[in-house]
Design a protein that fits this description.
Number of strands: 20
Distance between the termini: 49 Å
Radius of gyration: 24 Å
Structural class: alpha/beta
Number of helices: 17
Strand content: 15-25%
């Protein structure tokens, strides 16, 4: 391996399909208090919701394994990897993918947000080793980006060549003080497979990470950015947001597109730690402390995309109206996913929020052994799409070379239980069928013989079944990586998935009965 860009790898957008999410079960007394139960419940709520649409990996150690095992759903896979705190966004690998769907990780140097200059705790050796350990557990290669200091929360990407960062963070003296802004941009582009870095000046006021980008701005689509906003002229955040907006309103992305900027107001008054909350912390020697009345870096931009959801922080109490406003804005702007409110004050007390404790693993080739999930553990399987057309009985399996065809077709169609039984009986008939089924199992790991409904037949040769709406997006990405660009739509029933296909960049054909029959004739197919 050289660098990701030289090897043809790049970082996908967070809103692109996931294989899964990495989290760390919390326990550090200086972040979560001497009784971390409230934080552990919040982490469990997040992991449980995400596990409905993707694989969740929870890092545990001797301190947390028992509690995690008792609280988390069985579908969450525990990885025994030592950590110093629970900020998976900043310590877990940044994952990159190539056009073939291969996944690799990046291990940046981690120094607890500033090292000796202004780091938050001195005992971060375990955290610095997390990225490599996670890559080992998932059996994916790992790029060592050291000595470059970076956290995952310091970068956002649109997956189309653009990276978004803050000057306050990446130019801070505790990270890479010997590098110029231009050198940092070049390094990021080389490791993230990007073409352009857009720098905005500020993050959220009093953010102890030196103002990470993920608390102030996030991509919600190509050339679409949500920006934290403040209308209170007495608040320091007022001028900071406007400085960021001025830059973004004049900038373009890597493809030359101007940004559409959605303003997402921060809480209308500062969210501060109380004396009672301060009394529960237990700080180690050299660890940054908190004081009663200290302002916390509360922001609704610190949300996280799951495959079928967006998890949004809520602060409760007097911030109920602010919470509701944030949900309204995000529901208006983000379509096709459930916008889920999550009570997150106990996460904020640790110093971050939902995005800070999650790290996405893109859909692709993951070879880690994953226990298949049962339908009862995967509620989103209730949302079935359309199933498959089958080749006539006795027809020869297609040649393997068809996988390389640029106009490879995918057929999706409804079928009944009799046809489903027929599909299961013939699932490993033919080398393509067997290879594709094995590949789906390896890549997504959520399928077993009980899982109902979705089947995909490619060039009337693949037979498969078993993924719900969210994992279908991952399957479609896999098809794109094989050169698929056109999807045929069955008109046996109204195809409600057509919008999803188009959003993911596919051309759709066969939308009328006449066109369908003309394009695709399969003697004996239902």
């Amino acid at each position: 391996m050289t660098t990701p860009k030289k090897d043809g790898f790049s970082m996908p957008a967070e809103f692109a399909p996931h294989h899964g999410t990495v989290m760390i079960f919390p326990s550090r007394p200086g972040s979560w208090g001497t009784d971390p139960t409230a934080a552990q419940r919040a982490f469990t709520e997040i992991a449980a919701r995400l596990s409905q649409c993707e694989q969740v990996y929870m890092l545990v150690d001797d301190r947390t394994e028992e509690a995690a095992g008792a609280m988390l759903p069985e579908s969450v896979r525990l990885l025994h990897i030592g950590t110093d705190d629970a900020w998976a966004r900043d310590t877990a690998p940044t994952f990159v993918r190539n056009q073939s769907g291969d996944i690799r990780g990046i291990s940046w140097q981690f120094n607890a947000w500033g090292g000796e200059f202004d780091g938050l705790y001195p005992d971060y050796q375990n955290d610095d080793a997390v990225a490599e350990a996670v890559c080992g557990a998932l059996k994916v290669p790992c790029y060592d980006a050291r000595p470059f200091v970076l956290e995952g929360g310091a970068i956002h990407t649109d997956g189309e060549g653009t990276v978004l960062v803050t000057e306050a963070c990446l130019l801070s003296n505790g990270r890479n003080p010997a590098m110029t802004k231009e050198e940092i941009s070049a390094y990021l582009c080389e490791y993230l497979g990007a073409e352009k870095v857009v720098w905005i000046p500020y993050g959220i006021y009093n953010d102890e990470t030196n103002e990470h980008i993920d608390n102030i701005a996030a991509f919600i689509g190509p050339a679409e950015i949500v920006l934290g906003w403040c209308d209170n002229k007495q608040d320091p955040q007022y001028a900071m947001c406007r400085a960021d907006y001025e830059v973004l309103s004049k900038e373009t992305d890597a493809k030359g597109r101007h940004f559409r900027i959605v303003k997402l107001p921060v809480p209308s008054s500062p969210v501060c730690v109380t004396a009672e909350e301060c009394g529960d912390y237990e700080f180690s020697e050299g660890e940054d402390t908190r004081e009663p009345g200290e302002r916390l870096a509360a922001s609704y931009v610190n949300f996280y995309f799951g495959n079928d959801c967006v998890l949004v922080p809520q602060f409760g109490g007097k911030y109920a109206e602010d919470d509701a406003r944030a949900l309204r804005i995000l529901r208006r702007e983000i379509r096709g996913r459930e916008v889920v409110p999550v009570s997150a004050r106990c996460i904020l007390l640790g110093g971050g929020n939902i995005h800070c404790i999650t790290q996405q693993v893109p859909a692709g080739r993951i070879s880690a052994e994953i226990r298949p999930m049962k339908p009862s553990e995967f509620p989103c399987l209730r949302e079935f799409l359309y199933d498959a057309i089958f080749i006539p009985e006795g027809a020869a399996p297609p040649d393997a070379a068809i996988l390389d065809a640029p106009d490879l077709q995918v057929y999706l169609r409804n079928f009944g239980s009799e046809a489903q039984d027929r599909a299961l009986a013939g699932i490993c008939r033919g080398r393509i069928v067997g290879a594709v089924w094995t590949r789906i199992m390896n890549d997504y790991g959520h399928l077993d013989s009980e899982t109902p409904s979705l089947a995909v037949a490619v060039a009337a040769g693949w037979r498969g079944y078993g993924i719900g709406t969210a994992l279908m997006q991952g399957m479609l990405h896999l098809l794109r990586s094989e050169g698929v660009r056109r999807l045929s739509l069955s008109v046996q029933k109204k195809n409600r998935a057509a919008g999803l296909y188009r959003r993911l960049g596919f051309e759709t054909v066969g939308e009328t009965e006449e066109e369908y029959q003309m394009l695709y004739r399969f003697p004996g197919a239902e």
